[in-house]
Design the sequence.
């Protein structure tokens, strides 16, 4: 099976800018070059909501990193609505809670990858893999995420 992967120099060529010309930055690869990903069977663990912060802790337009079960999760306040995604950029691991926030977008402080905090989707290079998103609920002034 043949599929496309980012080629060498992806970061240097795109310079972390939105709208960068990405043509020529992808290379064909065969399936034998990819490590298998193993996932747990669906339904083997129950998720639960865990209190992670108070609404007063995260002002509008700000973010905070919390650790739940050994995993770093960034919580963002977008106009009074709270969203949670992995805190680690999928490019080389930058801390997204320290990134520049503009509306529902966060820019990684290390190399400029842009993510949608409401979905975890990649909006700009050099990252190409989306982030995990976590369900959030607010109970009174408590912010809870589902893990």
Sequence:
């Amino acid at each position: 099976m043949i599929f496309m992967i980012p080629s060498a120099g992806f970061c240097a060529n795109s310079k972390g800018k939105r709208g960068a010309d990405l043509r020529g930055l992808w290379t064909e690869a065969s399936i034998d070059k990819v490590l298998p990903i193993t996932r747990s069977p669906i339904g083997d663990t129950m998720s639960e909501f865990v209190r992670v912060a108070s609404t007063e802790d995260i002002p509008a337009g700000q973010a905070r990193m919390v650790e739940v079960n050994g995993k770093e999760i960034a919580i963002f306040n977008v106009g009074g609505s709270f969203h949670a995604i992995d805190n680690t950029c999928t490019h080389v691991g930058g801390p997204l809670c320290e990134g520049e926030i503009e509306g529902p977008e966060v820019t990684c402080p290390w190399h400029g990858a842009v993510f949608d905090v409401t979905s975890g989707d990649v909006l700009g290079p050099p990252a190409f893999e989306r982030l995990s998103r976590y369900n959030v609920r607010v109970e009174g002034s408590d912010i809870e995420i589902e893990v």
In short: The chain has one helix and 13 strands. The CA atoms of residues 99 and 108 lie 5 Å apart. The first helix runs from residue 10 to 14.
